[in-house]
């Protein structure tokens, strides 16, 4: 049911003024125009909003309910107008985000902390989990996802960057154990691999001609956490296959070196995704804009 905002404003003014005549003076309207506006509103709503006597005007139960909601709606409109006048567009309420554990800790959490400082009335709940959450069923506003996305009419996505895996080690380890000049040389070195529930992650590589190779590392040490693998590599223990966004700082500093640079993994996209809704809340729209503007630059840093 749709009601004109001007009519609602007249109704609220009548209630707060205490009479049709006083409301008419405040609104610079005739008493007849105010009375007809309220009559049309009551007809549209199919209820009586006022109890009228020759001397008093009071709200019915339905009128009281409608006034309380109308008053809040008009207050929200005035608040929005004020923010627009001040040039301030801010997010409010609770925003729920899902992200992969390590990526969420390293990139999404700092990004959202800065965003929260810009929007003092916004609460942010960041859930880091490597499973694919159901945004709609579990009530998330948006998610960061790494990898190819399945076709879905329920979700909308924006690409943020690319994810790839690199072979790496420390200069100290290579100085002690010798260089790696070919894929076959990996079998002669100590390798650290990702494993979960007894399943070892194979290294999916491709060369510059995009010919693909599968390497099953002869792992001396297996862990189910990429950060732990990185820490083990940094202790000069061996060679590992790690996400580029996880090690780019160490590569820039020279603490790690890329091995067999002509071999990288297949590239996988990184997206921000959100439910395909007819109405997108302002908090979601502003967050997406912030992520799209900032995260790609961080991934390239």
UniProtKB/TrEMBL annotation:
GO molecular function: DNA binding; DNA-binding transcription factor activity
Classification via Pfam families: HTH_1, LysR_substrate
Organism this protein belongs to: Acinetobacter courvalinii
InterPro entries: LysR-type_TF_proteobact-type, LysR_HTH_N, LysR_subst-bd, WH-like_DNA-bd_sf, WH_DNA-bd_sf
Residue ranges constituting the HTH lysR-type domain according to the UniProt record: 1-60
TM ranges: none
Protein name: LysR family transcriptional regulator
The UniProt record lists the keyword Transcription: yes
Keywords (A to Z) from UniProt: DNA-binding, Transcription, Transcription regulation
Family the UniProt entry places it in: Belongs to the LysR transcriptional regulatory family.
KW Transcription (keyword) present: yes
């Amino acid at each position: 049911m749709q009601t004109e905002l001007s009519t609602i404003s007249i109704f609220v003014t009548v209630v707060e003024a205490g009479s049709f005549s006083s409301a008419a003076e405040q609104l610079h309207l005739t008493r007849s125009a105010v009375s007809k506006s309220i009559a049309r509103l009551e007809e549209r709503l199919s209820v009586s909003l006022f109890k009228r006597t020759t001397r008093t005007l009071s709200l019915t139960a339905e009128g009281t309910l409608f006034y309380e909601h109308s008053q809040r709606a008009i207050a929200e409109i005035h608040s929005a107008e004020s923010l627009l006048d001040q040039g301030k567009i801010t997010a409010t309420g609770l925003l729920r985000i899902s992200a992969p554990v390590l990526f969420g800790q390293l990139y999404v959490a700092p990004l959202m902390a800065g965003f929260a400082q810009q929007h003092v009335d916004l609460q942010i709940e960041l859930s880091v989990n490597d499973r694919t959450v159901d945004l709609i069923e579990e009530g998330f506003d948006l998610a960061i996802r790494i990898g190819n996305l399945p076709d879905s009419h329920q979700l909308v996505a924006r690409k943020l960057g690319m994810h790839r895996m690199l072979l790496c080690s420390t200069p100290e380890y290579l100085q002690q154990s010798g260089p790696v000049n070919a894929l076959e040389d990996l079998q002669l070195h100590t390798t650290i691999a990702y494993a979960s529930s007894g399943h070892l992650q194979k290294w999916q590589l491709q060369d510059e001609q995009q010919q693909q190779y599968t390497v099953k590392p002869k792992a001396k040490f297996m862990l189910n956490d990429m950060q732990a693998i990185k820490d083990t590599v940094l202790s000069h223990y061996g060679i590992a296959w790690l996400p580029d966004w996880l090690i780019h700082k160490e590569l820039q500093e020279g603490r790690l070196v890329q091995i067999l640079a002509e071999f990288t993994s297949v590239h996988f996209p990184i997206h921000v995704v959100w439910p395909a809704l007819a109405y997108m809340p302002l908090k979601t729209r502003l967050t997406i804009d912030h992520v799209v503007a900032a995260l790609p630059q961080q991934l390239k840093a």
